[in-house]
Amino acid sequence: MKKYIIMRFLNNCYSYLFIFLSSILFSFDSVAQYSLNKSYDNIEIRGNITSIYKGRWYPDSANYTLSKQHKNLMRLKDARVRLKGSSMKKKFNYELHLDFANLADQSNSPELPILDGYVTYNGPLDITVGYTKLPISRESMTPIIYSPWLKRSMIIDEGQSRRDLGVHLEKGIFSDKINFYTSFVNGLTEISKQQDDSLGYELISRIDFAYPSKMKYRAINISRSALPILALGVSYRQSHKGEFHDADDETIWTGIDGLKQSLSYDFAVKFKGISLLIERHQINYEMDPIFIGNLSIPPQAQVNYPNYPYVRDDFKTKGKIVQLSYYHKKWRSVYSIRYDDANINYLEKDNELTSYDESIGKNEKTIGFAYNYRFNSHLSVFKLQLTRTVFAGFDKYGATLDYSLRPKMYELRVGFQYIIG
Amino acid sequence: MILLNIILVFYVDLLIPNQVESSNIKESSALCWNDGGLYVLGDSGQLGFLKDGSLVVNSFDFEDSEGLYVDENHIYIAEERSRKIVILDKNSLKKIDEKQLFFSGRLNRGFEGITYNPISNEFLIITEENPCQIIKTDKDFNTLGYYDLLISEASDLVFFENALWVLSDINATIYKLNPFNFNVENSWRIKVVNPEGITFSENKMIIVSDNLEKIYYYEIPQ
Fold first, then answer.
1. Of all helices (H) and strands (E), which one includes residue A13?
2. A221 to chain B: nearest residue by CA?
């Protein structure tokens, strides 16, 4: 209830902010101002509005299709405003990026409206302090407005925390052909808390290499590169917490009571309008023995706890993405196909401590096609995507769900993306 | 005329360079042929002068320097984000003036090139995209007008032989424009990754690639 009241209050604040920003945008004799300059102190206003229709059906089960019909809705996917600027000849730059669509959710738990809020000092090393994207993979670091898809692949979208608050370092060498990233963040599900009683922080590092020139984080080869450009990236993240965050069987856990380690590889090629992306993700969860922090139980009392300290099963999550896109300039069209799978929170077959096999854990495989029509060069785009998903596996906790009982799902998403500025 | 322009924008021939060399300037973003040598400007403030195989490089504190024009006495630098034209004395390389022009497009889609039309005695500054415009000013940088181009994106421009030549990075194309009404008269494709600067010597057309930091020499297209 408290959270609901706070969000309602914030809602009002953001309404005033929205009016304020609109007044800047459409002031000055009704000529839209997208950027303002005060010598070397610059600011620009951007944003995007994306509305979509989402429909799902299950050809093998009319009952399932009927029972899920209420989820076939038109949605305001993005209503974003972004203030971005720099000062002192780009010694500092900053960004405040808000999504009002997140506030349109009138439930008790609306999503946070902040997508980015940071300041960067650009020196020999770029040092960013604040809330922004984490360098976990090429797919994750590519803004969705530069992707032919309306929804990201499962291994990225199903619960991975992609933004966080902390210190972020970045260094590019050889004209940004090689880039190093490191983020030291809270590793929490919320932007800020009164206190964090869940122990440690989270460290994320990434290195990527491109040849013969740097490669931006874009999913479409709009410039139709005359030469093939290759990029290879490796990301690693680690946290050691004292409690679970987002410990839902169907999503990737933000943090666990133990050690969480993630390793991702990505490879991309761009050439003559063709873009290929291949990614592989592996996340290991090493649970701490239960009663950690309560080691004062005297040995004689431990007879009451025959399995003390109780060792819990170690879990894993893995997934991959293969995405091939082609930009047909004359037809202003982008065609993309994508295969992705995710095996979320599964036990390894050779786990000696359990009798479970690898079918435990949610397993999803999706194949999809996307089409874009680009009305202009500044990303006013009609987007369509059609996907087919099959489910397998079952969970160990809670309801003991057998995911293989879920019929295969077809999903259609159709939307229009408009960029302000 | 509009239909002819649309056809010319899409119908293009491919040009092949007959010489390629390294620019040795980080993020090379603009070129200007003057005094029998080649001035090369880098995005982060390096300004080089390449003549008879030797390169002299000076570093400046510009902010996103993207456009370059050199005349008898001065060097003019167009800064993309600040919308400023920084004027240097050609001999001492000291800054002698700066002019700020109005342009309200995105900060990273600002000024990409600057040149001078000696027939009308006007400076011409081109913006990258959304909108891709030419800003016309007098000799003292008083704005005379803003002109939308049919070209979707531009990375540099240069006045040469009574024509205006516009380079497009995204389209990897060179457009030849009427210097007064800015209609496209001809166009040619190039196979260069991220071409950012264009100029002409007496008998060559010269292009520089930003990402690859290479200079490409072509026969002047007819």
1. helix A2-25
2. B170
Q: Which CATH number does the domain housing residue A384 bear?
A: 2.40.160.10
Chain A residues closer than 8 Å to B105 by CB? 34-35
At B4, phi and psi to the nearest 5?
Answer: -60, -40
Of the candidates A341, A325, A366, A411, the residue with the CA atom closest to the CA atom of residue A146: A325
Number of domains chain B is built from: 1
Can you tell me the distance from the alpha carbon of A22 to that of A7, in angstroms, rounded to the nearest whole number? 22
Cα–Cα dist A22/A126, whole Å = 32
What is the nearest CA distance from A264 to chain B, expressed in angstroms? 27
Q: Which residue shows structure tokens 């009308």? A: B120
Transcribe A44-111 into DSSP letters.
Answer: EEEEEEEEEEEEEE-TT-HHHHHHTGGG-EEEEEEEEEEEEEEETTTTEEEEEEEEGGGGG--SSSPP
- Domain of A398 in residue numbering reads as 124-420
Asked if residue A392 is part of any domain, the answer here is: yes
B153 vs A39, A42, A377: nearest CB = A377
**Of B10, B61, B130, which has the smallest distance from its Cβ to A377's Cβ?**
B130
Q: Give the residue from A209, A240, A238 showing the smallest Cα distance to A138.
A: A209
In the block, residue with structure tokens 């995209």: B129
Task: Give how far Cα A240 sits from Cα of A188, A263, A361, B7, B170, Å.
Answer: 11, 15, 22, 61, 45
Residue A209 lies in a domain: yes
Q: How far is residue A259's CA from residue A261's CA, in Å, rounded to a whole number?
A: 6
| Chain A touched by B59 (CB under 8 Å) | no
Mean pLDDT of A321-343: 96
* Cα of A385 to nearest chain B Cα, Å: 26
Domain carrying residue B208: 2-219
**Cross-chain residue pair B81–A226, CB shorter than 8 Å:** no
CATH no. for residue B160? Answer: 2.120.10.30
- CA-based angle A51:A56:A57, to the nearest 5? 155
Return the SS3 of B102: coil
ipTM comes to 0.86
The mean pLDDT of B98-109, rounded to a whole number, is 94
Q: Over the stretch A22-68, which tens digit does the pLDDT of each residue have?
A: 555 544 444 557 999 999 999 999 999 999 999 999 999 888 888 88
CB contact under 8 A, A330 and B10: yes
Query: Nearest-CA distance from A43 to chain B in Å?
Result: 8
Q: Is the peptide bond before B179 cis (omega within 30 degrees of 0)?
A: no
A264 in Cβ contact with A282 (< 8 Å): yes
Enter the pTM of the model.
0.86
Q: Per the domain annotation, does A118 fall within a domain? A: no
Both structure tokens of A417: 């993306």
Number of domains making up chain A: 1
Task: Please state, in angstroms and rounded to a whole number, the distance separating the CA atoms of residues A25 and A110.
Answer: 27
- Residue A322 inside a domain? The answer is yes
